[in-house]
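Reply to dn_fold:

You asked what the input looked like. This is it:
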Amino acid sequence: MALIALGQSDQTANKAKSSDALERQIDLKNIEFLTTASAFSRTLSAGSIPGGISRVIACGKEQVKHALNLKSLPVRQVLDAIVLADPEYRWQIKDGVVNLFPSSGWPALLNVRVAEFNVDASVSVYVAAGKLFQLPEAKRAIAELHLAHGYNRIQGGSSSAYLKSPVHCKDITLLEALNAIALAHGRAVWAYSEIRCNGRREFTVEFLVL
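and this is what came back:
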């Protein structure tokens, strides 16, 4: 059983806030040519909702593009419209974090379990993610899955990138740990991309919203 602790009061407040925010009405005017991931992250940013995106990208495959011209629509309705236009993706809210992921399922690396993951509130989301993917379980899985490291922006960051509460996790997946980082920040949206091209597979981790 997974154990995730952000500090009980912080965790409860953040989860409730995220769930309520799905009914918040947002405006997104005259935004065109957005990929599904970009449309999703823009929507969560407008609602100040923490989230995470998982995508698998094949070389040469055309990505669905979205145009957003919305006035006073609930976040939930916008998210439904995004995945309706691109059925290769689904979305869900779990433990206060909204995720976009392939309809075929999560990439194998994100399902890898780690025994323990701890970070203090004094670090940025980039440092936290960097520490996560340096855990022995993560490094072993990356090697076994024959994944190469792409460009991963998991270091540095401005003051807006710092966690608002610590994260203490036991027996959780990398997916759950990334979500815990986003929740501890309050409105961060992480993106895991797996690029598959000409027999090569590489992954990147970045934060689209802070």
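The chain has six helices and eleven strands.
Hope that clears it up.
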